[in-house]
């Protein structure tokens, strides 16, 4: 056979090894901390064996990881044959995987630090079948030229298929034209970091670490310091708190820059290509026809400033389970969002007037909460008598947020398109086409029935489990309209 | 007002649900018995004994008599040419609409108890969800399964 068989780059052995080690870090740290940092290496000391056995196990496991990494690299071979990408690997159990080029939905690239040192790339091959979160094949490290070859081969086959089926491919030339949809500037990234909840997350993380290390912190000393510190007055306290927030903000900006640096969305031949990352570069490809639904997520802060996040629910996952939602625009002003979307997905109507839940539905948004609020308040008031009564104040934020949910909820039908708007804490606008809806549910409790109110929920495919959107406590009449709208799809 | 769906779960289904309720109650009764034993053994207040018995009785009445009855009354289904509609629920009634085009496969399953009563469950899977029509007479379930898979095959995506 004339086909060349290719190997992965040897670095992939190291990458596999490091990946394995990364899983070991957490148990290792736990045991290390549990031992109180004092490992004894003296066999005569008491507790020597108790300390050394875990260490031995860890080093044993790391050696196994090292060998399995090497073996995986050694046995991994891929080549092109019969318009297929063929992969085999495994030492004892040989696995062979043949992926026809025209079934390949997307090639996703990822460049970690190791990759970038040797100008390599990790390629993840995805087909329509790989909905369980696992890609069809992962080529851990290959040179960029090799990646281009795969992409070139794939495209070549797809084009010949197109020509065979009578469709004229618009361009015969090799370089497909692409147009830039969106690019994030540094200013956008700072804004993204500021309005994200990661500032809070960082603060919480610091607090968590502090409580974990509580044994190491001499609290009595700290208390003395703090009490003398308060004597200096409110100004210094304020400055310190401000400094803490500023630090948290800096960290969150840093994290955002590492993740989202050079965030670019490009459209190329009915596919979306999203690139991002500072240290670890990622490139995700989504065929436009695999998009199941579009989601606008506005957290309260972003809503206040007129910004939104746009997320795409795709049938094929990005990189494993965590990335099944692909962020299209991490942060974009609501004024500017419609233009690129219009260009990308012209079949949708973006800005629609919503039909709201009726006034009589308002109590249904917060009534349920009394079920769990009442017992909490009663218990708190009873056991912590004078102060516990203050738990009554819990009612206020809960009712406010429910009221806000009532204000946000709504739906709209435009031809084949359904828009549902609801709020958890962020407002979510869910836009889906009729032919992407897997199932629709209308829910009605006894109390809702009495007042002719019902809730609606739609499920679309996204990764393995699917994802749903809802609009609660609409007029029963309206939910019936939505149900009938879905029924009609086939009767027309 | 939307029309009530046409088909109900057979009467035997209710019996099986009651049977499941009996099993659940037996488990609760066991816990209550342990509780009574401990109360007597350690001289705990009689109130605990009393509460345990009341909880046991409530569990029995609801899971054998009340809940199966309500659930049975709510369960309805209809398989039409272009969609499947299922209504279910205890306190919250859920009506599920599945377009026939989206159906990927249909299974029937039958455990030992269902087999004894000649009943079977049908589960309908789409790419993202699974829906169940429980407690159908086995022959009906088989027919329905065949019919759904037939309809799902001819259903065309015209959108």
TrEMBL record, chain A:
Spans traversing the lipid bilayer: 21-41, 47-67, 189-210, 230-261, 364-384
InterPro entries: UCP026631, YdbS-like_PH
Record's keyword terms, sorted: Membrane, Transmembrane, Transmembrane helix
Protein name according to UniProt: YdbS-like PH domain-containing protein
Cited Pfam families: bPH_2 (PF03703)
Domain YdbS-like PH: 73-151, 260-336, 406-486
Signal peptide coordinates: none
Keyword Membrane belongs to the record: yes
């Amino acid at each position: 056979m004339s086909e060349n068989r290719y190997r992965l780059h040897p670095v992939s052995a190291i990458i596999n090894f490091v990946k394995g080690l990364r899983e070991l870090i957490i148990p290792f740290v736990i045991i290390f901390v549990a031992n109180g940092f004092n490992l004894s290496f003296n066999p005569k000391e008491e507790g020597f064996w108790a300390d050394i056995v875990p260490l031995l196990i860890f080093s044993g496991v790391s050696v196994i990881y090292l060998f399995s990494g090497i073996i995986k690299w050694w046995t991994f071979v891929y080549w092109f044959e019969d318009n297929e990408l063929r992969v085999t690997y495994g030492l004892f159990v040989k696995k062979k995987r043949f992926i026809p080029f025209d079934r390949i939905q997307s090639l996703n690239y990822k460049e970690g630090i190791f990759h970038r040192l040797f100008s390599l790339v990790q390629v993840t091959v995805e087909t329509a079948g790989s909905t369980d979160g696992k890609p069809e094949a992962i080529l851990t490290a290959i040179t960029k030229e090799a990646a281009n070859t795969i992409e070139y081969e794939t495209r070549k086959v797809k084009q010949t298929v197109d020509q065979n089926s009578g469709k004229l491919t618009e361009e015969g030339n090799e370089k497909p034209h692409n147009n830039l949809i969106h690019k994030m500037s540094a200013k956008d990234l700072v804004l993204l970091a500021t309005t994200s909840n990661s500032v809070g997350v960082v603060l919480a993380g610091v607090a968590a670490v502090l409580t974990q290390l509580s044994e190491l912190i001499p609290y009595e000393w700290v208390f003395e310091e703090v009490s003398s510190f308060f004597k200096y007055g409110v100004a210094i306290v304020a400055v310190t708190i401000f400094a803490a927030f500023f630090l948290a903000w800096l960290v969150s900006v840093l994290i955002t820059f590492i993740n989202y640096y050079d965030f670019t969305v490009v459209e190329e031949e009915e596919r979306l290509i999203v690139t991002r990352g500072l240290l670890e570069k990622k490139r995700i490809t989504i065929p436009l026809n695999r998009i199941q639904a579009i989601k606008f997520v506005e957290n309260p802060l972003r809503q206040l400033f007129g910004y939104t996040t746009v997320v795409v629910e795709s049938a094929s996952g990005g990189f494993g389970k965590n990335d099944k939602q692909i962020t299209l625009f991490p942060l974009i002003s609501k004024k500017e969002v419609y233009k690129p979307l219009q260009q990308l997905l012209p079949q949708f109507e973006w800005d629609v007037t919503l039909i709201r839940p009726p006034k009589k539905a308002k109590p249904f948004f917060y009534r349920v909460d009394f079920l769990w609020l009442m017992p909490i308040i009663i218990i708190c008031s009873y056991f912590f008598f004078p102060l516990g009564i203050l738990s009554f104040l819990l009612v206020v934020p809960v009712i406010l947020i429910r009221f806000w949910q009532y204000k946000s909820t709504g739906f709209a039908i435009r031809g084949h398109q359904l828009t549902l708007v609801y709020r958890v804490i962020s407002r979510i606008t869910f836009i889906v086409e009729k032919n992407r809806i897997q199932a629709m549910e209308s829910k009605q409790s006894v109390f809702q029935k009495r007042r002719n109110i019902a809730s609606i929920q739609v499920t679309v495919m996204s990764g393995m489990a699917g994802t749903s959107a809802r609009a609660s406590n609409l007029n029963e009449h309206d939910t019936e309209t939505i149900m009938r709208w879905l029924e009609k799809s086939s009767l027309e | 007002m939307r029309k009530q769906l046409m088909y109900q779960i057979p009467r035997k289904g209710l019996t099986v649900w009651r049977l499941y309720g009996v099993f659940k109650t037996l488990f609760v009764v066991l816990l209550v018995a342990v509780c009574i034993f401990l109360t007597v053994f350690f001289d705990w207040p009689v109130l605990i004994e009393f509460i345990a018995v009341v909880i046991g009785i409530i569990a029995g009445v609801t899971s054998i008599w009340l809940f199966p009855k309500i659930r049975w009354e709510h369960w309805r289904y209809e398989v039409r040419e272009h969609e499947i509609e299922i209504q279910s629920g205890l306190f919250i009634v859920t009506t599920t609409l599945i377009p026939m085009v989206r159906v990927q496969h249909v299974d029937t399953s039958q455990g030992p108890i269902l087999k004894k009563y000649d009943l079977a469950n049908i589960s309908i899977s789409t790419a993202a969800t699974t829906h169940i029509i429980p407690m159908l007479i086995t022959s009906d379930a088989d027919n329905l399964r065949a019919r759904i898979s037939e309809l799902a095959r001819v259903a065309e995506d015209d959108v």
